[in-house]
Structure formats: C-alpha cells, structure tokens
Amino acid sequence: MKAKKSDTKKVFLKKGTCSRTLFYILNREFGNLKEEEEQASDPLAGGIAQEGYQCGMLWGAALAVGAESFRRYENHGEAIAHAISATQYILESFINRAKSANCGVITNCDFNGKFGLAKFLITGKPLICFNLADKWAPEAIQSANAGLSQQPTDSPELPVSCASEVVKKMGGSNEEMVMVAGFAGGFGLSGNACGALSAAIWMNTLARVRQQNYKHSLSDPGLNKIMTTFFEETSYKMECWKICGQHFKTINDHTEFIKNGGCQKLINVLAKS
Length: 273
Description:
The chain is mostly helical. It has one domain (5-272). The chain contains 15 helices and no strands. The radius of gyration is 17 Å and the shape is globular.
C-alpha cells in the first residue's frame, strides 16, 4: 500500500510521535512494517528525548531506510553503506523542506524548559509538526528510494557505523545494526547530535517494548539514566563534531575513525547503559 499525503496527519494522530509516524509511513511504503521497532522510536521525538536536536521524523525515516537497506542488500557492509548514504539523502530533503534539521529551531520551543511542553501545546505548535509531516512524507519516500538506489561513494569494503557498533555490543541483530547505520557521525555524517546515543536509546526502548514493559512518557527513568550517563561521559557535549573533534566528509573517514579507536569508550559506556 502506497503512503498517501492525505493520510499522514491521521497516522500522526494515531501513532502519537513524529519519529514513529515517519518510521511507519516509510515502512509501509517498503512493505516492512515493524510495530515493536516503530514503537521503540518514540523517545527520539522532540529532537532526542526532547533535547531539541534532529527532528524525530529524521530518526524514524532513517530507521526505515536502514530496514529497507538490509532487505535489499545481502552483503552486510554494502547494506550499512547504503543506509548511511540514503540517510544523507533523507537529511538533505528534510532540510530543503523544513529549513533546519533541528526540532528546537522548527518548533521554536524548549521542551526541557519549565513551561516548554505547555507552550508547545497552547500555542498550537503541534500543527507545525503535523503540516511538516504531511508535506515531507512523500518527499521522504522519494529521497529514500533515490538514496538506496545510488551506489555510495568513498565507502570502504567493510564500512563501520558508530551507531551499529553500539547495537552490536548491546546484542542486536545484523538487521538492527543496519537499521541504525545511518545515525553515524551525528546522523548521515552531518556532525549533529550523537547517533550512537540515539542507537542506545532505541535499543534500550526496544528491549522494554518486547518485554511489554514500556509506555511512552516524558519522564522515563530508563531514558533519563542513558542521558545522564551520556552527558557525564561527553562533558555535556551533544553534537558529534564536538565529541569527536572533527567532521566526517566520507563513510571511509568515519570508518577509519571508529576502527582506530575513536569514540570507543563512549560506545562501550552507551552499550552498557
């Protein structure tokens, strides 16, 4: 069944978060519906646990792209490279539409502020998100297909994603490793908020969903623990480029960084959180 622009808002109302909505819509387009995995993306809404960074729609779309890359490409390394490359297409498409990748900029709300959520609701800001999802969903599908069809450039034979390494250390499957691969380097190598963090949040939540021990809440002790651990390890830095001290221009650059021990301690800490 093809995703239609006219039903995006209805899906959003039903699913409840922007991350889960776009994850579902792209999964539906590809025929890869994954209810538990989609639910586990809820905490990525609000720019990663309401931190205001990359919009949850991006995280959800990247997870769906990763799932489809795993299905299309039998070779594990090839699937990771295509997931990262396609996520870059997704990101470019979203910025063209929203003029920013970040939730805080798009909504002009600080969800961590004392009255942040109240301001968001009272001022009708959810309509901004609903309308953005409605307009971007078909563009997201188009850019995802385009990205997955293109051969990644400057990719090594065995590409590595920091986010995939977190999932691997948390006992995730090969499919789950590819699903988060696009989170690499601050999402599509963009240097924004840490993709390894988002991978850890998603995997932790997925385990609780599968145990039927999860309910989405703005006050989640499990999520708060991960965030506290992350901030302590990074000295309260959130952006990848600040944590790593560099930007990654290519998949090969990121792969070499991780293979040479870059972010290894952070990856280990997140995997245990």
